[in-house]
Amino acid sequence: MIPQIKKSMIYDRQLRLWGDQGQNSLETAEICLLNATVAGTECLKNLILPGIGKFTIVDEKKVTGSDVGSNFFLTVDQIGQSKAKCITELLKGLNEFVEANYVEKDPVSLINEDDKFFKQFNVIIASNMLEKDLIKLNKICTTENIILVSLKTNGLFGILRSYVPEHTIIDAHPENVTDYRLDNPFQGLSNYCKQFDFSKMSLVEHSHMP
After folding, report:
1. pTM of the entire structure?
2. Which domain holds residue 23?
3. If you average pLDDT over every residue of the chain, what do you get?
4. Which of 46, 48, 113, 210 is the most exposed place for a label (fewest CB within 10 A)?
């Protein structure tokens, strides 16, 4: 776990947005990406930056020239190497506090032969997988209470589906909105405001009023 002071400095903006409880949920999340596609890699990037706990990439393929041309996390000198390994190493560099792992296996074989593998994750992102394999994976996720996100892309078109168990959200933010209106303004302010006829102002003039 990141020391509290350092965490508040790094994640200051998002802590203001979803609070300590939301940040803790991120830091304890373990995400699995099946197939290191461009869209799948981008999804992981957007989860790593705010600070998930751990991610694992499952992909048995090697880096090709086409991969280098479409995925900015890959370079020419990585052609022929493990795609899962190369992308994991580059994504890990985005956030030193996030644990990273990769598995050089076909995701479909894990679904059919080793369903226990998926029990360690909170969320599974399945990228460009066939419907028949998604159905099997969804059964595993439903049994283990795991969130499944299916992502399919083809050129500029994409489909995103989420399979989520029953999930209750409670707004934990206190009602501490401050009202800055003056119900009893001092006389000088009242006199100043009476100088202006707001009904005759243009939108531009009105927008520049203090």
Report:
1. 0.73
2. 1-163
3. 86
4. 210
Q: Tokens 């439903």 appear where? A: 142
The mean pLDDT of 118-130, rounded to a whole number, is: 95
Q: How far is CA 51 from the centre of its chain?
A: 9
Nearest to 55, CA basis, from 97, 14, 20: 97
CATH number where 59 lies: 3.40.50.720
Taking alpha carbons only, the member of 141, 104, 124, 142 closest to residue 55 is 124
Report the relative pairing of strands 147-154 and 157-163 from DSSP bridges.
antiparallel
In this prediction, residue 109 has a pLDDT band, given cuts at 50, 70 and 90, of very high
Q: How far apart are CA 35 and CA 53, in angstroms?
A: 20
Q: Which of 161, 155, 102 is nearest to 129 (CA)?
A: 161
Closest by CA position to 61, among listed 91, 31, 41: 41
Query: Exposure string (b/e) for 12-35, b if CB count within 10 Å is 16 or more?
Result: eeeeeebeeeebeebbebbbbbbb
pLDDT tens, residue by residue, 80-91: 999 999 999 999
